[in-house]
């Protein structure tokens, strides 16, 4: 019975690590895309809009 408890704990740890990894990759991709879109938007502004 104790072995099952340890096995479930190890499985839980593994799934938690995988979840954290996937979440970090997703948030990194979101930040990269947001910066890219912001950069392109800023480059389309006129000089007058930038000076405001």
List keywords for this structure.
single chain; about 50 residues; about 90% helix
In terms of DSSP E residues, the strand content is: under 5%
Task: Choose one word for the global shape.
Answer: rod-shaped
Radius of gyration: 22 Å
Give the fraction of residues assigned to helices: over 70%
Order of helices and strands: HH
Terminal-residue CA separation: 69 Å
Please describe the biggest sheet, giving its number of strands, its sense, and whether it closes into a barrel. none
- Which ranges are low-confidence, i.e. pLDDT below 50, for 5 or more consecutive residues? none
On the 0 to 100 scale, the average pLDDT is 94
The secondary-structure class comes to: mainly alpha
GO molecular function: ABC-type transporter activity; ATP binding
Organism: human gut metagenome
Keywords: Membrane, Transmembrane, Transmembrane helix
Domain ABC transmembrane type-1: 1-52
């Amino acid at each position: 019975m104790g072995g099952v408890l340890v096995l479930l704990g190890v499985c839980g740890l593994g799934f938690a690590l995988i979840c954290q990894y996937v979440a970090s990759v997703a948030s990194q991709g979101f930040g990269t895309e947001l910066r890219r879109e912001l950069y392109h938007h800023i480059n389309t502004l006129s000089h007058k809009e930038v000076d405001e």
